[in-house]
Amino acid sequence: MKIRLSAGSALVLGLGHGRCDVLPTTAYVMCGDRCVRSCAFCSQSRASHPGRDDLLSRVTWPEHDANTVLQALEADVSGRVRRVCLQVVDAPGVLETVHRLVKSIRSVRPDLPVCVSASAYGMAEVQILLESGADRVSLPIDAASERVYRLCKSGSYTRTVRLLADAARAFPGRIATHIIVGLGETEHELALCFQHMTDAGVGMGLFAFTPIRGTSMQHASAPGLSTYRVAQVMFYLITRGYARADEFQYSQDGSIRMFHRPWNEIRMLIPPRAFETSGCPDCNRPYYNERPGDVPYNYPRPLGEDEYKEALGLVYSRLEEDEDANALEASGGRCRTR
Ligand code: SF4
Questions:
Q1: Nearest CA to ligand 1 atom 1
Q2: Does the C-beta of 296 come closer than 6 Å to ligand 1?
Q3: Looking at residue 190, what is its pLDDT?
Q4: pTM > 0.85: yes or no
């Protein structure tokens, strides 16, 4: 059986050649070819014509023999692999393949957590994936609202959200989703989505929209870095329980105006890791959304002091707070009422 391994994962497992300044700590495997769904942003969608089959986001996924990958996982020459993630393309019969693969991985590396990111249609499929040995199942909803979902995905937003909530209730701590920033949502929609998923007990991984040639959204723009940094701060505050989405202030167009506290308090709550890759433990996804050399949307490693300051500065640049307000708050006065 052939499976696809991300180029970085192949390097880590000793199955590829080249250099990479940040290596993945998760081995990413793609199962299935050409999806039956028609997500407007995805190169594996049946509606896309990228001219090659080995792309997902901006990562290449060369084919490997499944047994060779299993042997490499067992040997783990780099000692870096701390998780395996199966990214499942929705194709007929693929879940049976995934089921077998998870069992095989668990049999050679029982210590290694395996997560499956797939489009399950019902609770029975989620249960089968978990029973095969996956520690977590991610059902990617991608869009932050039903409005955006209708613009760029097929299927039903409501049904997927309901399945996520039901599955999270049945399997606490084991259900997650992916949210893509930059598909056309407002920051208010994004915050509401983070809140809804947090309240439902659904874990989340944040991604940045990446225009890929041959997809319906190839000419759309990737989100600005400040937009992504704001999303990361909202995500951190909401998922850690520091704030609720309806406590933030938004403009009429849905952009963030201010968080629930003055910036000089918010910045104390935001550690450098708020700007690192989010999702399953040990998932760092280097270069999934950006080119080597670019400032990453999701840092796949700890941030340096300057990188952290720059990230905070980008968030502050988006707020409508002024220095007087912060100075007043710092002096013990009440700076703003709502
Ligand atoms: S968060 Fe990372 S490891 Fe988890 S399902 Fe998503 S891509 Fe895979």
A1: 279
A2: no
A3: 98
A4: yes
